Every structure is written in C-alpha cells, then in structure tokens.
Amino acid sequence: MQVKPYFCPNCRSNRVKFSLLSSARQQIMKDAISGEVTDQYETEQVDQDEPDIQCNVCGFVGNEMRFVKQAEREPRM
Ligand SMILES: [Zn+2]
C-alpha cells in the first residue's frame, strides 16, 4: 500500500474513508470421503503491491492506482 493521498474517482467527494480489500490464504485439510475440513492452519495475509481499495462513501472498488492518480489530478488545496 502506498503512502499517498487517495481520492475516489467515482464519487469524487471522498479522500478519507476507504476499505483495504486484502487477500488471505489459509491452508486446510479435507476428508477425502466426507468432504469435511479436518484441520486448518493459521490465516496468512497475501502481500499485494497494488491492493484493491473500496470507497466507503459510494462503494466503488478499484485498484489502488486509480485512487492515487485521481488524487494527483485533483490535489487538495
Ligand atoms: Zn466514492
């Protein structure tokens, strides 16, 4: 995630309230016959260079770069 201002390119009113949509990976063991999960391991965070971001005002989801670029185009004065 970048230390840069975001600006929602969709509603163009939000610069502060966002959700970071991250991916998680969890290893599991399944029973080959019943299909039940027999064992599960700790959840690991999958590192993403450019995570998806959601605007908490309008709900728009997009790649982080779209929010960064919009903030660069229309910087806060
Ligand atoms: Zn928005």
Task: Write a compact overview of the structure shown.
This protein has 77 residues and is mainly beta.
Overall description:
The protein is mainly beta and 77 residues long. The chain has one domain. 13% of the residues lie in helices and 38% in strands. Strands 1-4-5 form a 3-stranded antiparallel beta sheet. Strands 2-3 form a two-stranded antiparallel ribbon. Strand 4 and strand 5 form a beta hairpin. The mean pLDDT is 94. Bound molecules: zinc ion. Zinc ion binds next to loops.
Structural class: mainly beta
Structural domains: how many? 1
Largest beta sheet, briefly? 3 strands, antiparallel
Strand order of the largest sheet: 1-4-5
The outline comes out as elongated
Overall helicity = 10-25%
Span between N and C termini?
Answer: 23 Å
| Tally of contiguous helical segments | 1
Order of helices and strands: EEEEEH
Show the helix and strand layout.
Layout: E1 18-21, E2 23-30, E3 37-46, E4 52-55, E5 61-63, H1 64-73
Antiparallel strand pairs: 1-4, 2-3, 4-5
This protein binds zinc ion.
The site of zinc ion (ZN) has 8 residues, from loops.
What are its keywords?
77 residues; mainly beta; 3-stranded antiparallel sheet; two-stranded antiparallel ribbon; elongated; binds zinc ion
